[in-house]
Amino acid sequence: MTSLPPQLILQTLNRGDGLLGMRPHGKMGPRADQVTLVRLGRWPEAEADRKTWEQLPLRPVDPEMLQWRDAAFGRALTPCWTLEQEEFFADFAAEQVPQLRALGWEVEFLPGFAHHSQAIDAWRLEVGAEADDEASPAPERVQTLGLSRRKGSWLMSLGVVVQGERVDLAPLIWNLLKRDRRWLSAEAIGTIDDDAVISLRAPGGRRLHATAAPLKQLMLNLLEVLVVQRSRRGAIPLTSWEAARLSLLAGSDSRWQVVGADELRAMWLRLQSAGPPPPQPQPDGLGIQLRPYQLQGLAWLQYLARQSLGGILADDMGLGKTAQALAHLWVERQAGRLQQPALVVAPTSLMFNWAEEAARIAPGLRVAALTDPDQRRAVLADLGQVDLLLCSYGLVWRELRALTRHRFSVLVLDEAQAVKNPRSRAARALRRLDAGQRLVLTGTPLENHLGELWTQFDFLMPGYLGDSRSFAKHWRKPIEVSGSAQRARQLAARVRPFILRRLKSEVATELPPLTVLTVRIPLQGRQRQLYESVRIGADHLVRRVLAQQKVFGDGLISVLDAMLKLRQVCCDPRLVPGLAVPTGMETAKLDWLRAHVPEFIAQGRRVLVFSQFTGMLSLVEAAMTEAGVPLLSLTGATAEGKRGDLVRRFQAEEVPLMLVSLKAGGVGLNLTAADTVIQVDPWWNPAVDAQAQARAHRLGQTRPVFAHQLVIEGSIEERMLELQARKRTLADGMLGSDTGEQLEKFSPAEIERLLAPLLDEADPDDDA
Question: Rounded to 10 degrees, what is the CA torsion of 738, 743, 748, 754?
Fold first, then answer.
């Protein structure tokens, strides 16, 4: 005769059953007015069933420990068992009961069992402005997509409604991420069936369940935030952009209730319905005729202003970014929207250029500059009579207290790569300035690494790309270290709507050609021996540093100093501090310059010579003076008031040669009188060399331009060219270029990409 299977009976008793609680005993803690007991309706007889019974985490209950209103109650409940904690019964019912039933056991839940999984009735997302005494009102933060502080401008609270009770969803999600890694990958989330039942665990052992669809919708939009956010409970800080994107959940899934995000949702809907920038006519009163691509740029800047957005005008060097920005300010003034002055912050060397260009391009703008120390207070006190205020990067943090007393209609950073270090005093000061619109002008938003791109966006729309740590983890490391093409495409799709970049080869076809010639010069004699000696010493130093694992701090400084010495020997051994150079030692690059510069000038060419080392420029100046070549020199030692005069003299063709240091003259200058550029020493990134070439190859140039890059054959300088090529590939892939008669910025396709999930694959070191 076959024996009947074992039977378990589970029952939850409370005050309605006469139970007052249970005293602690053994490993079991005290219970309040609810105790779940397990009884055996039929004992396990088979040996396998007895082993299963022994392995269950049940503990016998001492009947004397149960507290009843009447001593006669509960006598029929012995023998009985329970779990060490009452909240363990939710997991027992959800996980072990199905296993027992699969083994043939009968399990009966008596009415009133309190630990069944409960269905989620509704999903709730609450978005509210973060309390902050220094913060501006919520609608203004929405308009500018900016943060009042670094941690976030909005707080998001997630909840579910179960039988009329709101339950915090955040700890349930964290538990789910810990148990099921599929929810860390957008690609894996897409494979989950919308109707699949997902079990969620609430603190205290409570079990909830729901179909997957609404949770998938949330996770696809929130995945990036959750992976970075380390708080398991309570409200989650969000940037305005993240909060606005999440506010659209209500429109995409009716099961979501979104509370407190009406203005955020309105911003997204306005952006979606606005379409790409319309064509822009030539503004009246402008001092120049804008080219077609410049009118496109003006239309894009105007579009950003209407949508209260910031952006990066990243046109190739020499395409007139200054002219487009000034035209934008002029149109804003004509429309009556320049209620407060605009502020342009630029390198000191470009102050005179901005003043001259404003007078030529937008003569109707009232311009003032903070260049004269004796006039600064008067200028700041009379800003009501100013349309455009000019300030240098070096001055903006010194005058920060005075500048923060004013609000600016537009804040423009020119050559913004000058503040690519977000921790510099100037960069920190700029983030504190109050402006209705923030714009960046730079032909090189990405010079060395993606962190520089993050810095630009952290100024424009703080938090849009997360904080620097999360950006490094989710973007820089996968792209720069692991070479993830997928992550690179995602980041490019996220930033390109806010970057306008046109190349000279695409939009300024009337420009004469630029020919770049890499001149490889061999070292000879004692200079070659010296280079090899310094190279061997540097090699031993680097190996010693690596062996000691001193990659940072003093070790890194030593390595950089060794590489600097190698570069100095390539240029001229006399540049190395403390090095005794014997008379008559070869100087390969200086010899090349002695031979070719007078020849170029004799052919009627006008020449720019660039070097990072001002000492090298001094040696070149002495050699050219000895050869009878008239010249001008522009370095960091040149007084600010004299720079404009030097540029005018060269442009007037008074002299055929100008020596320029990269730091002082590598950006912003218009030197179209030159048709030959000589770069004595390469720099680590290609953008700097391109900037130097662009001083001559820009709008206004009428002759073909030849750029000669002097490189010592087989030296560290050739390795620098290889590094330049890798950096150029990274920048080109991330920035792309915009061509065509109609700009596709903020087209429906681009808006859709902005709303799409950003993480299609989980990072291997994500720790949920």
Answer: 40
How much is the pLDDT for 245?
63
In DSSP terms, 279 is beta-bridged to: none
Task: Say if residue 614 is in the same domain as residue 515.
Answer: yes
CA nearest to 660, candidates 710, 619, 609? 609
Each residue of 213-237: pLDDT tens digit?
Answer: 888 877 776 665 555 454 455 556 6
d(Cα 678, Cα 693) in Å, to the nearest integer? 9
Which carries the bigger pLDDT value, residue 766 or residue 525?
Answer: 525
- Give yes or no: residues 336 and 237 share one domain: no
Q: Is residue 369 part of a domain?
A: yes
Number of domains observed in the structure of the chain: 4
Is position 255 within any domain?
A: yes
Burial pattern 742-752, b for ≥16 Cβ within 10 A else e, equals ebebbeeebbe
Kindly give the residue spans of alpha helices, DSSP state H, lying in 418-473.
425-432, 450-460, 468-471
Residues 6+ apart with CB under 8 A from 526: 582, 585, 586
Cα gap 418→347, rounded to integer Å: 7
Tally DSSP H helices, then E strands, for the chain. Answer: 30, 28
- Residue whose C-alpha is closest to residue 345's, from 285, 435, 454: 435
Q: Which range, 124-138, 181-195, 300-314, 633-647, has the best average confidence (pLDDT)?
A: 300-314
327 has pLDDT over 90 = yes
Print the SS3 string covering 578-589: CCCCCCCCCCHH
Domain boundary (698, 713, 728) is at 713
Q: How far is CA 290 from CA 286, 297, 324, 326, in A?
A: 9, 10, 8, 11
Task: Express each pLDDT in 561-607 by its tens digit.
Answer: 777 888 888 888 888 887 777 777 788 888 899 999 999 998 888 89
Same domain, 50 and 132: no
Task: Tell me the range of 27-41, 95-109, 115-129, 158-172 where mean pLDDT is highest.
Answer: 95-109
CATH number at residue 696: 3.40.50.300
In a domain, 750, yes or no: no
With a cut of 50, say whether residue 751 has pLDDT above it.
no
Give the domain range for residue 154: 118-274
Domain match, 359 and 403 both: yes
Determine contact, residues 541/566, Cβ cutoff 8 Å.
no
Q: Is the pTM of this model over 0.70?
A: no
Angle value at C-alpha 310, between 306 and 315, nearest 5 degrees? 110
Residue type, 753: R
Same domain, yes or no: 324 and 413: yes
Judging by beta carbons within 10 Å of its beta carbon (0-12, 13-18, 19+), is residue 48 exposed, middle or buried?
exposed
Q: For residue 165, is it within any domain?
A: yes
Do residues 361 and 327 share a domain?
Answer: yes
For CA atoms 760, 761, 763, 768, give the dihedral sign: positive
